């Protein structure tokens, strides 16, 4: 409050323009970009980020289930069929800050209340040269809503199926030289039973969830510099529908970005992140009458901090940019395991730290008919302080106390692109690029279990690298309709995957005992994954009607040898060949609106050996808003309104887990 008062007291009465944004992307030439504005974000039936970004076909998480029922570590973002792993191969940025979990790389979607997002830009294809490591399959950029994007005060509350509650509020307080924004969200529900009805047993129960998030943002003009200060926090609690499967997480983020507004464009960003995570795991017997705890991952603390600086000394027809960035993370998993008569007998700690520092340069030349751009960067990466410690809880000498060798290396990445105006309406584009990703601490050091299956880490994993190329075109008609199509090919070398090595029963390194019917896997580098495909997007309006269609075809295949020879020619796990999203909407002058969104996924495989098939899925969502007064609207939302079974997982013994069943909402929105 004192800062707010000082800013008001020093206010300059002259008109001030603040954007709340960073520098525009430098790799825009030749890129396949889908932009979702605030109007589309607000029409989401679920109001959840992971649902909104699926408007761009090809964007997928590791599981089909969303952040109300999926295990938190199964949620990631990838594109172009380069899946097969729960770690993100696309980079999520919020106001320029990387959002992957410092330890595991997964995305905690409940941390991002969509009310505070003003725009989403989804760039398909490698962007590591400009955005940094991790953007090898694409980039999803979230921008905070500016005062011009929303009303000063908005609030909503809705009740839904299974005692669900969704409440949100946001406030924007303009100042003479900027603005202050506050937002908060709470969501809870009794949940549904994840296992499909014909496979359930006495042990199965609904999986409740409770999630909260809050954020504060200050945007202030300081003369020739604009300052943007962000602070946010979240809490996420979920259950997997059987005893001993609760997982919970929390986190705090802070960042400061300075943007120069003179003739020489520049920006400087610094940020810090802190996360805590905990999860329990169990094994359920064949009759599904008992659930036995197998692992207590009681603490996973992690931290991350980073910086980014960029300057563009030339702008206009010729643009040049130079920059440097870095991110450093550390974390560990603390676990109790090997339960006997309901009590753990052993304890494990495993973790380490890693970091990247890179320098990059961008350049672009624009003529009346064409734009050509190029970017290049070099990164220094380090993996250090890796450790695996295991001991008996009863005392005595450690069972294992391994220190893994420190490692380091260099990675180069780049992008060249061009686009040509073939006519006033048609733009042709092409691009080629290379990107890379460092293994997460989770992949390097943390074992995990999914039912009877167990997967071991691998401290010797190498970084992934992707080379790709694309060609496409965009058509913009005077009537406001737009269409784009892109053909691409991508090769992901040293792709990290969970490779099947043996079947239970048996005792295996790090993970311990795997029961009969279970599978033992280890994270390993495959030779490569090759993906080829097509993406198409169409959108436009006719009078009060609007439409959006997005389709993606990704023919991805694994090339493996040695221990992974059995995977050769298989599709990556959890990777559909076809994805489709289409929305039809109507809105009149009185702000009454209705929209229907259909999404379809072709069949995909649960496992790396392509033995457990998940059936194709088709869902239909709906949204309607009816003004009650000038400031209040009645909202009706429906998710999966025909209650189709969307298979999200299938176990070795054929047990099927489903994603969200039909969920109906009714609520009020205040503007």
From TrEMBL:
Membrane topology listed for this record: Multi-pass membrane protein
Keywords annotated in UniProt: Cell outer membrane, Membrane, Receptor, Signal, TonB box, Transmembrane, Transmembrane beta strand, Transport
Keyword Transmembrane annotated: yes
SUPFAM superfamilies reported in the protein's UniProt record: Porins
Places the protein is found: Cell outer membrane
Entry-linked InterPro entries: Beta-barrel_TonB, Beta-barrel_TonB_sf, Plug_dom, Plug_dom_sf, TonB-dep_rcpt-like
Domain of life from the UniProt record: Bacteria
Similarity remark: Belongs to the TonB-dependent receptor family.
Protein name: TonB-dependent receptor
Native organism: Sphingomonas rosea
């Amino acid at each position: 409050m004192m800062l707010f008062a000082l800013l008001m007291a020093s206010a300059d009465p002259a008109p001030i323009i603040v954007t709340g944004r960073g520098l525009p992307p430098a790799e825009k030439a030749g890129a396949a970009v889908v932009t979702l504005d605030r109007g589309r974000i607000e029409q989401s039936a679920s109001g959840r980020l992971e649902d909104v970004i699926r408007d761009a076909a090809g964007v997928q998480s590791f599981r089909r289930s969303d952040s109300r029922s999926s295990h938190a570590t199964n949620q990631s973002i990838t594109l172009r069929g380069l899946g097969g792993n729960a770690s993100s191969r696309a980079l999520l940025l919020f106001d320029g800050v990387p959002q992957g979990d410092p330890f595991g790389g997964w995305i905690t979607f409940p941390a991002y209340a969509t009310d505070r997002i003003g725009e989403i830009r989804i760039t398909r294809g490698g962007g590591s040269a400009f955005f940094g490591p991790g953007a090898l399959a694409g980039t999803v950029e979230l921008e905070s809503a500016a005062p011009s994007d929303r009303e000063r005060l908005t609030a909503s509350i809705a009740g839904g199926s299974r005692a669900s509650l969704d409440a949100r509020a946001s406030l924007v307080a303009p100042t003479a030289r900027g603005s202050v924004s506050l937002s908060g969200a709470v969501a809870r529900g009794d949940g549904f039973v994840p296992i499909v009805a014909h496979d359930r047993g006495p042990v199965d129960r609904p999986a409740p969830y409770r999630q909260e998030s809050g954020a504060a943002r200050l945007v202030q003009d300081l003369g020739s510099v604009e300052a943007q200060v962000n602070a946010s926090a979240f809490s996420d609690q979920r259950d997997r529908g059987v005893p001993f499967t609760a997982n919970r997480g929390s986190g705090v983020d802070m960042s400061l970005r300075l943007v120069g507004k003179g003739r020489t464009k520049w920006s400087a960003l610094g940020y810090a992140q802190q996360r805590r995570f905990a999860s329990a795991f169990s094994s359920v017997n064949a009759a599904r009458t008992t659930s036995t705890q197998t692992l207590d991952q009681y603490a996973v603390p992690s931290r991350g901090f980073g910086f980014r600086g960029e300057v563009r000394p030339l702008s206009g027809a010729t643009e040049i940019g130079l920059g440097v960035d870095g991110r450093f993370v550390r974390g560990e998993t603390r676990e109790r395991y090997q339960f006997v008569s309901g009590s753990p007998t052993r304890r494990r700690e495993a973790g380490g730290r890693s970091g990247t520092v890179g320098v990059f340069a961008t350049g672009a030349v624009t003529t009346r008919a064409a734009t050509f751009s190029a970017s290049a960067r070099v990164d220094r990466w380090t993996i250090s302080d890796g450790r695996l410690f295991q001991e008996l809880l009863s005392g005595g000498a450690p069972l294992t106390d391994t220190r893994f060798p420190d490692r380091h290396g260099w990675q180069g990445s780049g992008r060249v692109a061009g686009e040509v105006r073939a006519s006033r309406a048609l733009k042709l584009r092409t691009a080629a690029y290379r990107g890379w990703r460092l293994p997460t601490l989770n992949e390097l050091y943390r074992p995990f279990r999914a039912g009877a299956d167990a997967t071991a880490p691998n401290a010797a994993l190498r970084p992934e690298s992707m080379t790709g190329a694309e060609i496409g075109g965009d058509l913009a008609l005077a009537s406001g309709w737009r269409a784009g199509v892109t053909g691409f090919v991508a090769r992901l070398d040293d792709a990290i995957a969970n490779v099947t090595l043996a079947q239970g029963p048996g005792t295996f390194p790090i993970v311990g005992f795997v029961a009969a019917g279970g599978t033992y896997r280890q994270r390993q580098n495959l030779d490569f994954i090759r993906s080829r495909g097509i993406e198409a997007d169409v959108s436009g309006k006719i009078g009060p009607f609007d439409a959006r269609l997005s389709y993606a075809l990704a023919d991805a295949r694994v090339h493996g040898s040695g221990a992974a020879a059995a995977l050769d020619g298989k599709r990556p796990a959890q990777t559909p060949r076809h994805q489709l999203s289409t929305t039809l909407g109507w809105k009149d002058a009185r702000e009454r609106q209705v929209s229907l969104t259909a999404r379809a996924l072709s069949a995909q495989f649960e496992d790396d050996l392509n033995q457990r098939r998940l059936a194709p899925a088709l869902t239909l969502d709906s949204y309607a808003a009816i003004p009650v007064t000038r400031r209040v609207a009645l909202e009706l939302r429906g998710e999966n309104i025909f209650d189709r079974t969307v298979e999200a997982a299938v176990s070795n013994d054929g047990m099927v887990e489903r994603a969200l069943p039909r969920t109906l909402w009714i609520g009020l929105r205040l503007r």
